[in-house]
Amino acid sequence: MSAVDARNLTKSYRRKHGTTVAVDDVSLVAAEGEILGILGPNGAGKTTTVEMVAGVRRPDGGSVRVAGLDPFTERAAVRRVLGVQLQSGYLHGALTVRELAHLYRSFYGAGHDPDDLVTTLGLDEQRDVRYEKLSGGQQQRVAIVLALVGDPRVVVLDELTTGLDPQARRQVWGVVERLRDDGVTVLLVSHLMEEVERLCDRVTLLDGGRVVAHDTPAGLVAGAGLDQRVRFRVAARLSPGLLDRVPGVDGVEVRGEQVVVTGHGELLQEVSTALVRAGVVATETRLERATLDDAFLALTGRPLGDDPTRATTEEAA
Ligand code: ADP
Ligand code: MG
């Protein structure tokens, strides 16, 4: 049995001028203990999808099972296994962090020590501060405390690090990694490819309310048929044709001392070996791999959005 099994979900919103199809035949499956990323640009339908999985928004069509249970007809049972942090979550602003954590803990028969979780999420100093007085990032962390306090088997986290500074972001990623160690299933909604590449076992890419692809992060990049690039500098001119027949090499571009080799497979190793054999001294050698951003661009023709960082793996050859 899959921890999350959503089939053919559809949802339209009625607006003053016509309707918006927010989710158009989306299916999602997360195995037990899996961290499934739901990645896509703003407006892709990510939030609407997980709201339907969490049972807070009724689908127009399709079915949802969480741990085999229907979130609409078996609400009470689902609440015992599912923890949810939603973008639009409403919390009682007049309660303090501590009060909220203990209140939510009281909803569950078993669970974590609320004070410990508050500490884990770095909210010790805000313990007695009212929710409404917290910064956006602190409110975000409170929402995560409340999603986890019942020790759920399945957790939905929607944009969990939005508004957090880089240090807090890394702390929260650590929390998700601990969930993975405990075998908790996580649906992780994000538009940050770095977050998804780091945390997720599998990723469902959404665009315009539809699933564009579903695979491991590495599989998505490989499946998009994207090249690797090896860059290096040479002091002396590279003799023409030297790298042309090296396995994996598709192209060689020489710009003065800079050489850029595009290709596939074990490109870095093959190129390095060929250079050593030819007695060429290469410096500043770098391997650039395509990222999920590149994969998304290749699949949809559009960039994913907000996160401009392009991960570059630097490896000495
Ligand atoms: P994402 O989380 O990927 O940014 P959403 O699920 O929030 O996407 O939104 C998908 C589409 O549905 C967008 O076009 C958005 O404007 C629209 N939408 C979302 N919520 C509502 C709502 N409550 N009423 C009307 N339209 C909505
Ligand atoms: Mg959203």
The structural class is alpha/beta
**Unreliable segments of 5+ consecutive residues:** 306-317
As a percent range, the share of helical residues equals 25-40%
CATH architecture of the domain at 4-81 and 152-222 and 295-300: 3-Layer(aba) Sandwich
Mean pLDDT: 89
**Could you give the count of β-strands?**
13
Give the name of the CATH superfamily of the domain at 4-81 and 152-222 and 295-300.
P-loop containing nucleotide triphosphate hydrolases
Strand neighbour order, sheet with most strands: 5-6-7-3-8-9
Put simply, the count of helices is 10
Order of helices and strands: EEEHEHEHHHEHEHEEHEEEHEH
> In the CATH hierarchy, what is the class of the domain at 4-81 and 152-222 and 295-300?
Alpha Beta
Shape: elongated
The small molecules bound here are: adenosine-5'-diphosphate, magnesium ion
Write down the Rg: 23 Å
How far is it from the N-terminal to the C-terminal residue, by CA? 46 Å
Please name the CATH topology of the domain at 4-81 and 152-222 and 295-300. Rossmann fold
Share of residues in strands: 25-35%
Largest sheet: 6 strands, mixed
What would a concise description of this structure say?
With 317 residues, the chain is an alpha/beta fold.
Folded structure, characterized:
This protein has about 325 residues and is α/β, with parallel strands linked by helices. Among the domains are: about 160 residues, P-loop containing nucleotide triphosphate hydrolases (Rossmann fold, 3-Layer(aba) Sandwich); about 60 residues, Alpha-Beta Plaits (2-Layer Sandwich), CATH 3.30.70. Helix content is about 30%, strand content about 30%. Strands 5-6-7-3-8-9 form a six-stranded mixed β-sheet, with helices on both faces. Strand 8 and strand 9 form a beta hairpin. Helix 3 crosses helix 4. It is elongated, with a radius of gyration of 23 Å. The two termini are about 45 Å apart.
